[in-house]
Amino acid sequence: MADNLEEYRRKRARDRTPEPWPDGPPVPGDDNLFVIQEHHATRLHWDFRLERGGVLVSWAVPKGLPLSPGVPRLAVHTEDHPLEYLTFSGEIPAGEYGGGRMTVWDTGTYETLHWNDHNVEVVFHGARTRGKYLFRNRHDEDGRDWTLRRLDPAEPGHEDAPEFLEPMTAEPGELPPDDDEWAYEFAWGGLRTMLLVCGGHVTAHDETGADVTDRYPELHKLGERFGSTEVLLDGEVVVMKDGRPHPAGLDQRRRADSAAAKRLKTGCPVFYFASDVLHLDGRATLDLPYTKRRELLDGLAIEDRHWQVPRSYLGSGEAVAGASRQHGLPGVVAKRADSPYRPGGGQGDWLLIGN
User: Fold this and answer.
1) Structural contact between residues 277 and 231, judged by C-beta atoms closer than 8 angstroms
2) Which CATH architecture has domain 171-354?
């Protein structure tokens, strides 16, 4: 029987990796098990592995599982893996093939509807992966590039996140009555930016809808931090100096092209101050009250030196405004605690109170 794991062994050093290392040729099983592993290698991707003929036929999918039928994903065919990889999690040492952290994202069984060298159609039965999917060869030169598509309709209630929504606006106003009907945030004087994280990738749009992703390379790593979480955020890009917003530095970053932005990362870094969640894991959150959206935002708990979720204060507007003045900030934003998010509008639910 042919040893389909020859390439797997050739790419690895047995004494330098914790990965499974079967000594003999593969032994066929029932051809119905699968695993999807989240792989934080040079670039975050998800490894899809399907049991076939005693091995796990494998594809690396950079943006992960498509949850809607209209969202094709690149799937790169890789070497077959041993069945022991069905449960493998671990840290592959840096410098080794596939170096990085690997965890089991989902596992379960699948049904084969069609399988040949060009098309693999299956039905997944996993905890997170369910439904009919198609792997199709793109017929490129070496045959490695495939496309992964969902064939079933999306799960009930699922809605893909938009790349951009027109920001809700804050009207100039006075400090409202100091009670629990209002929440307060510091105003930072930054550049309003929508940040979409999807499939481990980050896309940034300014308040006009223009794509400014290349302008802020510091934020690209957020995709890896979020993993498979899909979220659309509203917030501000800010440059800080001596603990205060630095308008001149912000203007420098705003005018920089992608090459200049990379050079400025060290001396004039940007930070993303997130203030709202507009879409989270297939669900729009626009109709939720502000306080609930803030709970979702706080629950993301992503740690990164270029990402922050500044505090929101329920009530105590005078105290927040005083702290804003003390720290040299532009002012505060007052938001009705029960207000929904109104793209492109506001209707007086958000007020900007300058210092």
Assistant:
1) yes
2) 2-Layer Sandwich (3.30)
